[in-house]
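Re: that chain you flagged

S.,

Sorry for the slow reply, it's been a week of failed gels. I finally had a moment to sit down with the sequence you sent. For the record, here it is as I used it:
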Amino acid sequence: MERTIDLRSDTITLPSREMLNTVLTARLGDSLRNEDETVRTLEKKAAEIFGKEEGLLLISGTMANQVALAAQAGRGKIVFSPEVSHIARKERVSTSLISGCAVVGFGNERGFPRPGEIEDLILRCRDVFGGEAALVTLENTVNASGGLILPTEVIRETADAARKHGLPLHLDGSRIFNALVETGEDPKTLGDACTTLCFCLSKGLGAPLGSVLVGPRDVIERAREWRNLLGGGMRQAGVFAAPGLYALENNVERLRDDHEKAREFARIISSSPRVKLLNDPVETNIVLFSPVDYPVDKLWKKTKDRGVLLDFRRAPIIRAVTHLNVSREEVREAAGAIISILDE
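Prediction finished late last night. Pasting the structure tokens below so you have them in one place:
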């Protein structure tokens, strides 16, 4: 195999020529002064998609999460996040440094809250954790669980439990459009179920960078202040807002193709008794699997030598992610290479 087939993540996608051409015609201005027309258009479009008042363009999904937490929770407060979520696994230190909040994990291995868990945590928060509950978060899709789609009824029930005690709900929707193209739901249904929501432009949507946070006007204004405090304020930011607009207008529906490629990859590798598929059925564009009676480090080296790049960071759990820069033929070739290696 001469070429490289990169299935490590959908973050490695490259912008198309058509997407890059939008930069040349973008109407620019000083975004910190709210004078960049392309940024304003993107923020307005994102807010309208989810039925929210305002949107805010940020550099990354982590920054979007962090300014959302900082805008809705204060120092010494408790933020409840699913134990398998990005916020709980990768952003605990960021949260403590930036907003001064403590992240407390909850939920099962799928990222779902257990029955009655949210209200119980809120009621016992001060006694158990020594602080006041301020915010509840969820993630959709659930990356660590293999791109699992969090049902809207679960999101709504969690939001109701939080709001009963005066707490907002933030939804980390990094890959929310992967969920929406599968369920066929109106994005406004999700927007109605949460207080704030963020999504990435730079994963399956194929833009080079950027995330958007949407929510009530007052929360977004506080988040904007936090973004600027973190050095995230930008000048002629329309140069990356334009590809984001292109992504929203052209790359959402094609996510279905990524899901089909992931399912085909899963079907092929699971035909081997040497592979254990860990997220069956595959719901979106992520496949989790482990080798059976085969050293993981050996598999990593041999797949790399064969030009197949997979995510081994959670070994023995291996992740493969399909995206717009990998074809069906390449997915089949990569899956076949894995089976061939395991059968050696």
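What I noticed first: Residues 254-342 form a domain with the Aspartate Aminotransferase, domain 1 fold (CATH 3.90.1150.10).

Talk soon,
D.
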